Task: structure prediction
Amino acid sequence: MTRGGMESVEVFTSEGKGRGLKAQKEFLPGDVIFAEPAYAAVVFDSLTHVVCHTCFKRQERLHRCGQCKFAYYCDRTCQRAAWLNHKNECSAIKKHGKAPTENIRLAARIMWKIEREGSGLAEGCLVSIDDLQNHVDSFSEEEKKELRADVESFLEFWPAQSQQFGMQYISHIFGVINCNGFTLSDQRGLQAVGVGIFPNLCQANHDCWPNCTVIFNNGKIELRALSKISPGDELTVSYVDFLNVSEERRKQLKKQYYFDCTCEHCKKQIKDDLMLAVKEGENKPSAETVKEVTQFSKDTLEKINKARMEGLYHEVVKLCRECLKKQEPVLGDTNIYLLRILSIASEVLSYLQMFEEAADYAKRMVDGYLKIYHPNNAQLGMALMRAGVTHWHAGLIEAGHGLICKAYAILLITHGPSHPITKDLEVMRVQTEMELRMFQQNEFMYYKMREAALKNQKIQVMPEPSNETSPSLFHKKE
Result:
């Protein structure tokens, strides 16, 4: 079954997994399989005043809705574009006295769209909202309690003059949001800023080593090919970060998405040996030593998270250095606990402008990532980009340029040439290429010119570290 604008894909019944998507034609790496606007979407509660409620771009100065005083927009163009979806919300917020939580707002936007257009197939959709999975029957007791609270809050907010829906249908909508809410990122793809429902994307099944990736670009999600895809192949995306052993990924998928992963990488535990690697040779550590260092790493990561939450970045660096001293004689270069500490250390040291040490850790981190991640993984591309910028700041222009070029090659596939982060990376690539030529011609003059230039303009330093990693594919309520 296909529908307007979606001729290149088809919904089919996937054995053991329910509905899925398969290709109707050949795709090459970087091809956009389809682009889909949100059926409904909202900005996260914590960012409602700094992110446009239409295009989801972060802006320094936003225009506030003069009626509800809640919604913010880039300009009049975004405000006019939002009115169809904001009109009912605006009056409901005024009447209610305050805006409800993001889940309630998203559910209300879905219901108002159903009120306007019905619950059948919307234009360009392969399935209706009614047909999306809700997994309410699989909810834990705690999740059912949260669901009941959401339904009660929704009924308090929902206007009496609007179409009334039954409790079961309202629960279905909240179940759909819980299982299928897609994370929307800001214009550079660096921070999660909202959540939306995309019915076509919801049909793509999970694989830990997928053939597709999903990027939010210019107000739509894009499903992009990561490898060559032949007609009839199933289109898959990864719901979770691959950087975890198969047992932990399967636990996470079962808890959050209510299914048992049967992908080849999980069944055969592919790359688990790399992610749990220990030092080899005559000084190979005992199993007991590995266990002790692994537990020490886990405990340290908890302390680091607490210190980061409190903004104690020098304490984070101290904890990382202590942990690396314990890890380095015991854990292999691709061990995930070593890589996690290296990632945090390089990020925080870059923020503190201790670039030489940060560059060393960043290089070790990406060397490990390159052995573990899919070669066209978006998070690998972003890590290479950050490492390249860190090397540039450390004055390691040749290594920095090489890393930025590798990142650019990946992001051309995962994000495409029109994405803002790819455009930023192209500017960095051209700049570092020019500087590298200068460096090779006259190293002394290069450093003199660099020193003068840094007083005026430099490649942007990474923002203040946060506990949030790269935005995950689907948004799960905390």
The first strand starts at residue 9 and ends at 14. The radius of gyration is 24 Å.
